[in-house]
Amino acid sequence: VLDLAAVPDTVVSPAVYGEKTGGPVLDFSYVGIDAILEQMRRKAMKQGFELNIMVVGQSGLGKSTLMNTLFKSKVSRKSVLATAQEKIPKTVEIKSISHDIEEKGVRMKLTVIDTPGFGDQINNENCWQPIMKFINDQYEAYLQEEININRKKRIPDSRVHCCIYFIPPTGHCLRPLDVEFMRRLSKVVNIVPVIAKADTLTLEERDFFKQKIREELRANGIDVYPQKEFDEDAEDRMINEKIREMIPFAVVGSDQEYQVNGRRLLGRKTKWGTIEVENIAHCEFAYLRDLLIRTHMQNIKDITSSIHYEMYRVRRLNENNTTVAHANGVPEHHLTAHEM
Amino acid sequence: CATVVSFKSNCKRNVRGVPLAGHVGFDSMPDQLVNKSVNRGFCFNILCVGETGLGKSTLMDTLFNTKFEGEPTQHNQPGVTLKSYTYELQESNVRLKLTVVNTVGFGDQINKEDSYKSIVEFIDAQFEAYLQEELKIKRTLHSYHDTRIHACLYFIAPTGHSLKSLDLVTMKKLDSKVNIIPIIAKSDAISKSELAKFKIKITSELVSNGVQIYQFPTDDESVAEINSTMNSHLPFAVVGSTEEVKIGNKMVKARQYPWGTVQVENENHCDFVKLREMLIRVNMEDLREQTHTRHYELYRRCKLEEMGFKDTDPDSKPFSLQETYEAKRNEFMGELQKKEEEMRQMFVQRVKEKEAELKEAEKELHEKFDRLKKLHQDEKKKLEEKKKSLDDEVNIFKQKKTAAELLLNQAQQAGGSTTLKRDKERKK
């Protein structure tokens, strides 16, 4: 027999540091609940983290370089597979490569997923399909493992956490391909659009371009990361609004260091000057890096697992119910549509 | 700063380790993770199993430095019930939703064979609730209030001899379902030497009966040493008290006796500090993790296998699980309804039968009544006839009497009244 008496309104505060009559301030009242933070940190350090980033964009937009710049090492596929002569594939291919990286004791398994061939054909119709399929396949793999009776302690997470979409720096507006892709993919994955090779735009051109892009995204109902509808609370919204006012970030990538004013900095050297990648006066790479890695990495993963994945799961589980319903003669219009 | 790393596990995973040429910044990940958890809050659920009067509530109060609700229970409970209370505690920026579940009436019954059952049912019910949530189509796991029991403090009575059979039976039933931490309650009743022997006896009894108690984890180097030391001190001999006594110039939690004062937080006096250290400050997260990855998984596996699922059917699985679970539940409900229908039919039948019986009886009574009534009428008739005949006789007699008197008067008038008198006297 079970008798539940929940008292959620009682906030009992045990930790009253040093407010005891007389005597030195000792940890009488200290229970030690906050030690759980340290315990969690220990556990996280031991387990390590996983991050899967996909890069999408036409060839020549500097995708590989940007990845290398972000993670300050040769993480892109091109750097690893030293085939300088790479032909542009006839269809969109999905190629991923993983690395174990470590920083100050924190271990991370980084997987970079490349999509060569995207947007490079004459006819680019449905070039998003292989990408969509890949993303859904990762959700499927996770779901299958989650549903097993004997399942692994930690389900390996190959789900795409973030998809960086490279917009060519035309300076005018988004192309139909950009709109189509982002419209479809923003429903299943976190999209972070960036203006590639932004060193070809002046600051005014850049601002104009960004504004145009934001308008077009809004007009097409495309919600890119950080999505407005997933803001958790007012504080979240405040932080995210600032970011939303800045996207898409205009980035420049480089894995070459140059001497600038007595310091060695990552940059691109041209005849008219050296563009410092990490200088926010020159480009917005640092903002992108901070967003993706230093502040919102956990959030990106959370949104993937608790929103995108869950949506996939709901669709998938309902799918079966509809096939069962079919067998039972439920009329067609009752079924939900899953567009690809 | 360049970091050169070598990973032994690389060869297995076909993943390469790369050196970083500068500070990337993902070393902030543990902080990001911790911040998220802080925002969400934590929850921790403790189950206290032990006989009434062993100081379970007091120990909880002492551990968490507060006064939880509840009156001391009576000893006359007919069965074992579980009462759970949830509290929101806060320490610096950590919010903890603590649930304390107490076993009420444990060990009070004369027949204790079924005592462990309500406890096992309760623990299973929490697993079931989580499983249900996990199997839902639209689910909200991240905001789900986890009620699964993370730690079970088993209170052993301080007899000084050995475990009671109730203790062994109960712990054996619980060891695959929950992390058991056995503690010797009210241990100020035992002397130091007896305590050492008692602990050894308890440990050996647990081992010989195959009871798996929770071992503090020793795989993480930062806590391996302290955990393995503490493992050797199990079961912890504790004393609880929320009253404070002045010792020297400090106020300490203690129990005051005429012969001395037992200080709760003095490690020479009892193992309270060890318990608090292990339960809260060092291993709270591990207790939660073991509950989820070991005990819950076991429950889930058994439950699903029980319902007839297998892993060998990959194509139809995601659906089968949800669907068949529903189907089985519907089947069960259907059977329940059928049984209910049967019972209802039987009831209607019985009612009909009884009604017929009663009607029968009523009929009989009516017949009896009629019979009696008739009898009564016959009797009455007879009596009236008799009365009539009697009346007739009375009348005839009266007539005779008047006739006789008349003759007498005539005779008197004719003379010879004395002879008549004499005759009369003679006749008398």
Task: Describe what this molecule looks like in 3D.
The complex is a heterodimer of chains A (about 350) and B (about 425). Chain A has about 350 residues and is an alpha/beta fold. Chain A has one domain (about 40-75, about 90-250, about 280-320): Rossmann fold (3-Layer(aba) Sandwich). In chain A, about 35% of the residues lie in helices and about 20% in strands. Chain A has nine helices and ten strands. Chain A has a six-stranded mixed β-sheet, with helices on both faces. In chain A, β5, α5 (about 175-185) and β6 form a beta-alpha-beta unit. In chain A, α8 (about 285-295) crosses α9 (about 295-325). The model of chain A is unreliable at about 1-25 and about 325-340 (pLDDT under 50). With about 425 residues, chain B is α/β, with parallel strands linked by helices. Chain B has two domains: about 40-305, P-loop containing nucleotide triphosphate hydrolases (Rossmann fold, 3-Layer(aba) Sandwich), CATH 3.40.50.300; about 335-395. Helix content of chain B is about 55%, strand content about 15%. Chain B has helices at about 10-15, 30-40, 55-65, 115-135, 165-175, 190-210, 220-230, 270-280, 285-305, 315-415, 415-425; strands at about 15, 40-50, 80-90, 95-105, 150-155, 180-185, 235, 245, 250-255, 260-265. In chain B, the strands form two sheets. Chain B has a six-stranded mixed β-sheet with strand order 3-4-2-5-6-7, sandwiched between helices. In chain B, strands 8-9-10 form a three-stranded antiparallel β-sheet, with no helix packed on it. In chain B, β3 and β4 (about 95-105) form a beta hairpin. In chain B, α4 (about 115-135) runs parallel beside α5 (about 165-175) and α8 crosses α9 (about 285-305). Chain B is elongated. Mean pLDDT of chain B is about 85; it is low at about 1-15. At the A-B interface, β1, α1, β3, β4 and α4 of A face β1, α2, β3, α4 and β9 of B.
